[in-house]
Design goal:
The structure is a homodimer.
Chain A (H helix, E strand, L loop, with lengths): L9 H11 L3 E2 L9 E2 L1 H20 L3 E2 L5 E3 H4 L3 H7 L4 E6 L4 E9 L4 H11 L8 E6 L2 E2 L13 E2 L2 E7 L2 H22 L5 E4 L11 E8 L5 E11 L1 H6 L2 E3 L5 E3 L1 E6 L2 H12 L16 E5 L6 H14 L5 E3 L7 H10 L4 E5 L1 H5 L2 E6 L5 E5 L3 H26 L1 E3 L3 H9 L3 E6 L7 H11 L2 E6 L21 E6 L3
Parallel strand pairs in A: 3-7, 17-18, 17-19, 22-23
Antiparallel strand pairs in A: 1-2, 4-6, 5-6, 7-10, 8-9, 10-16, 11-12, 11-24, 12-13, 13-16, 14-15, 19-20, 20-21, 23-25, 24-25
Helix pairs in contact in A: 2-6, 2-8
Chain lengths: ~475, ~475
């Protein structure tokens, strides 16, 4: 059992799971750099696989660009350089005598400035477009404060960088990105989110606008998950990404990027699905999907273990582990695998052997059923779907309960204290709305997350901004954030 | 067709393939850092998958350690620090104002010194052993000269780091590593190699001894592929990796590492399997396994394309691409896909439609067969195996022809000119044989690759060293190398 409770002290509970489920070790001697143990590495690699399928389905091809980016590349797009400058680690020396390099090389915080010079070589004609590429790459950001799986100096990242002939095609990509987020986060991992177009003051450095998926953490804060950026022609002009159209006229490409971070998905998996016993994993992510615990009685150990192996063989299409550690009690084994989030536990003792059954325990509901061995495979298959459904339904219910509306500033002030998303009428998500957003930030420590793009929400004529009282032009959501 | 011939000017041929098969782009503006395009990224990721299976089969678990290693970690094992010091890139600054870091951070050239402090925390008891972990990680080495896929400053790497209770178990791991090399390189990729125990003067920095697989390049040089290192207790003593044995006595762990580099496998794939038309890929690696070329006749384009799609559907279990680019001739398409090494080409024209057939062309033999559509799937399945077998058989024949024996120094001198491996009697692969090895290096520009570990080759009593004439204690192989 965990020492901390999710509902009482969320932050300590979160840290305790990371340690006890052996997700990461924080004792590595460089600040903000985690050692990822097997359990979390396995989970994140499964997330990469899910995205690989999505990228393939949508015509993205995988590439691999260098880790190091010369300083001169960085400065080509001015806003981007300004936005990321503070976050770059610089390689300045090499070799035994620490020989000074001719030019400082930045470790990629993101790869726009590594990739786009090459794009300008590769893209020549409208026939080369759309040009859709992605890479699986860790990125590095010199963050002042760090928190495991939330904000780090090194994290697991995927980045897609696309070029299109027209503005319309590029903007359609932003919606396709949102669909990929839905397929992975919602459908495969059971994590619902809200899709937003961010206000202008909160866009990615160098973009025209940014869209992102926000999940809701149990402490009532929004957590940004994959984001997409519409670059317009900002980077293509800075890097010379031109093509000849069908009439042989030179044009600049229209660009977008999409950046899902499996590292950060971990944070949502832990906090949304986890409970007071620990992590809860869907089958798709679990390194062990089923753990079999032999219930030993003196003199019957051999027979029980033999039966466990028989059942494991029966279930061999799953990732099954038999926990036969002799020095631990069955009870302490239950706790270990509950903390690690294994979706199904199977207990087998001498009584079960007699009855040709096994006791199956679901991690999500703790429900226990004795199942005849002949029905076991079918039962597990059913659970595979049911557990994911339960996790998704729970998370969805929680998200819905935490979306509330406010018609006045004092109502907003009251409701935001409890956390969640507060829906309000707002003057503008263009730069002229920034002053109202600053008031929200200063007085309520909350942020304007933007207007929904996964759902149409038209403003009613005559609506006023809850902050300044001027004409409201957007329905926006306000939340505290990570 | 390529401009260079493999047999005439191998080096230019190699470079031409890298460019024209779109494997890598060398125009990135940091020396020794390549941009890996889709074609090579796909191939290397498939190699990673093959290794993942091997590591799983042999009980290795995946982890992920940080990219950056503090300088103080590096110096803990003195030989290792000395051996790798010259190759480290140092991060010394971060942020907009290039703030100096407290301690220089090295970018991993290999991860011993990142991992072993954590191992000392994790390993407590004999029950934790064997402890087998691996990571998929690019490594960085400040090499003075670089060559694509042969010697680079950034390359795709896998590293396994294992700890055992006993010396015997650790040494058995070295053989298991060799078996993994065989399963991937020889069985799956058709690349034969010789397995060596390297001489003492050629071991990995910090190891007791090193073993490695050498493939043979068509220019007669040996190319080192995966290597394994037996560390004894060198690192476990430096990093305090101790465990309590069954009698509760403190013991130091016995360690090994294994490092296959898919990046370097690319070099062998290109050079061993490639021919004057370009790359040749086995089905397992090919991004497109089959390319269908519609043979267009005026007015019949639509019908031909429809038939191509029908055939593609028939073969949907394979990675099939229809090259329908209207602006290219069928002939130029053939060349494009030959350069890229696609194992099977299918041509479909109006005549073939009439006969309900397709023309199937093998990349490895250029043989062409008209196959009835109903037999197509079966035929391709057969080719999948046959093409790999042909590639392996060819490579094996070439390797065998290039292993020769020499009984005297002048014979060695003569034979080494033609390249390949020359088998000789040699005084010693311990440090007292180094002088003879230096003579070989200086006078013949060749190296002692070591004694075979994949095959027992006992020295005959009374044999003399071909260099110094003293008592020979090892049969070794000598070759020019990369």
């Amino acid at each position: 059992m965990l020492e901390n409770k999710k509902g009482d002290n969320f932050s300590e509970w979160y840290s305790e799971i990371i340690k006890k489920a052996e997700l990461a070790d924080l004792r590595y001697n460089v600040q903000g750099f985690l050692v990822h143990r097997w359990w979390s590495t396995f989970i994140m690699k499964k997330m990469f696989e899910m995205y690989k399928k999505e990228f393939e389905r949508t015509g993205h091809k995988e590439v691999m660009f260098p880790l190091l980016i010369p300083k001169s590349n960085f400065v080509k797009e001015a806003d981007h350089a300004e936005g990321f400058g503070a976050q770059v680690f610089w390689v300045t020396e090499a070799g035994t005598r620490h020989k000074k390099l001719e030019e400082p090389l930045g470790i990629r915080p993101t790869s726009e400035t590594a990739m786009y010079t090459m794009y300008s070589y590769w893209i020549r004609s409208w026939r080369d477009l759309p040009f859709k590429r992605y890479q699986e790459a860790n990125v590095y950001r010199y963050e002042p404060t760090t928190r495991p799986f939330l904000r780090g100096r090194e994290f697991f990242f995927l980045e897609a960088h696309n070029v299109f002939e027209t503005k319309e095609e590029a903007e359609a990509q932003i919606l396709e990105d949102m669909e990929m987020s839905k397929n992975v986060l919602y459908k495969e991992l059971g994590m619902p989110f809200l899709g937003f177009k961010r206000p202008q003051w909160d866009k990615f450095a160098g973009s025209v606008y940014t869209c992102a998926a926000d999940t809701l953490s149990p402490d009532g804060r929004a957590l940004q998950q994959p984001s997409s950026h519409f670059y317009g022609q900002n980077f293509s002009k800075a890097f010379g990404i031109k093509f000849k159209d069908e009439k042989k006229k030179d044009k600049y490409g229209w660009q977008t990027t999409y950046g899902p971070a499996p590292w950060r998905f971990m944070a949502s998996i832990i906090s949304i699905h986890g409970d007071n016993k620990g992590l809860i994993l869907p089958f798709s992510l679990a390194p062990y999907q089923i753990v079999i615990i032999p219930i030993f009685f003196k003199g019957k150990e051999k027979g029980v273990l033999k039966e466990c192996k028989k059942v494991a063989k029966l279930l061999k299409k799953y990732r099954v582990h038999i926990d036969d550690r002799p020095e631990y009690t069955a009870g302490s084994k239950y706790h270990d695998w509950e903390i690690k989030g294994v979706p199904v536990r199977i207990e087998i003792g001498p009584q079960d052997i007699k009855k040709k059954q096994a006791v199956v325990v679901r991690r999500d509901t703790s429900k226990k059923h004795a199942i005849k061995q002949k029905d076991l495979l079918k039962h597990i298959k059913k659970l595979e779907k049911e557990i994911l459904d339960t996790l998704r339904t729970r998370a969805e219910k929680n998200l819905k309960q935490n979306i509330r509306s406010a018609n006045t500033y004092s109502e907003l002030k009251n409701k935001i204290r409890k956390g969640g998303f507060i829906k309000v009428n707002f003057c503008s998500i263009d730069l002229n709305g920034e002053k109202c957003a600053e008031k929200i930030k200063e007085e309520l420590q909350a942020e304007v997350r933007g207007e929904r793009i996964d759902k149409r929400e038209k403003i009613k004529p005559g609506s006023k901004c809850v902050i300044c009282g001027k004409k409201a032009s957007h329905v926006v959501y306000i939340a505290k954030q990570y």
